[in-house]
Each structure stands twice: as structure tokens, then as C-alpha cells.
Amino acid sequence: MRILAVGAHPDDIENFVGGTLALLSRQGHEIWFAIATRGDIGAPTGTRDEIAVTRHNEAQAACDVIGAKLIWLGYNDEFLFNTLETRMSVIDAIREARPDIMFILSEADYHPDHRTIGTIARDARIPASVPLIVSRFPYTSIPTTYICDIFSDDGDAFTPDFYIDVTDVQEEKQRMLAAHVSQVAWMEAVFKSDMDNDAVRRDRRRGAEAGVGFAEAFQTLKDYPVTTDLSLLPNVIMPTA
Asked: Selecting from 1.20.120.1200, 3.40.50.10320, 2.20.25.90, 3.40.190.10, what CATH number does the domain 2-237 have?
């Protein structure tokens, strides 16, 4: 299979679906990361262009951990908007990757760029399949789409439809996150937060909910046409009543 994850910033994909992608990569599937912004304010020092180069290199290093391919859309961090240009860019990302499965960010997350790319990816999945919408790549099938967890310490802010046990790939997920050296420093400087430990804490909390060591949580996309097929995913755990 071909799997596409769509994020707003370098490190989003690793945070929310990195373990699942590591599992799918282990199974031999082709993994793609599409990152909407340059992450060009996400470091304590440097010009925006310098930071963008650093963050692109870090994103590539994270992809290399699991052999993923990188699509870099290059919009400015903090100023991502749902426009004709951005929607066509995401349509092209979907068409380039031709995914069987797509993971998108939640429209309920705290960050406006996260919410915006979640909406754009959600709205682009059907147009990517329409022949009369002409872009750089040929049209493709509508991917089965799942919504990632949100950046929150409140477990009730996102109600999972299912979990994926990522206990066996925590080391790989941490290696992907650790590749984002500048973002780790930025989170510490601005938010007094340890990005790597935040991800571990969230996965441990979701794991406790699912009855395993570590888990990632997801919602199914219920838009027409519903394409959900959980048999395509590894280590799925359904919530208990």
C-alpha cells in the first residue's frame, strides 16, 4: 500500500502518527509525508529563511528513519490559509503520493495551521480524484482517510474511534522526533515544554486507555463517501464501552 500523512509543520506527523507510520513501514508499505509550511519561525535563532532550511533538513532526516518520502509545500509558518493555491497544492500532494490511506490533522486542534491543513486535506481528497480538475499530476482514487489525535493534555478533548498499539516502535518514533533539533529547542525556549516527552506522555495516556504500553489515537472520517477499512491498519484496538 501507499500511505500519505499530511501535516502543517515539520514534526506534526511524527508527533501524532509517527508510530503507526513506523509500523506500516516495517510491513513494507510506501510512506509519504506532505508538510504544508516551512516551519520558518520554529527555532530560537536565525532568519526565517535559515530556519526553513534547517527544518527542511530535519524533516528529511526524520523521514529517513522509516524510509518515507517527503513532499514540501513551502508555505509560511503561522500563516497557512485555505485558498485556491493551497488546496491545489494538497490535491497535487495526494495525486503525487496516490495513497490508499491518508492521515490528516484534526480540525479541533489548538493551532490554526493544524486546523487549516486538516480542512484542506479533508476537502482535497475528493477533488484529487476528479479528472476535470487539472494539475501537475494525474487524478487518483479517493483515499481511506483517518484523523489524528490533537495536541492536548486533556484526554477528553478528542474522542478516539480506535487506537493503534505503537509500543514496539516507540524507539523509532523517538528517533524521528529527535531529528527535529531546532523545534525541540524552540518548544523549550518558548513554551518551557519538552516536545519528545510530551509525545511520550500522550502515547502512554492513550496506551492506558487502550490497555497497552503506548498507543496513538484516531478518528474515522465520516464524510461521504465513507472509505473506512480498519483491516488495512496494524495493531488496531477498539475502545471499550
From this structure: 3.40.50.10320
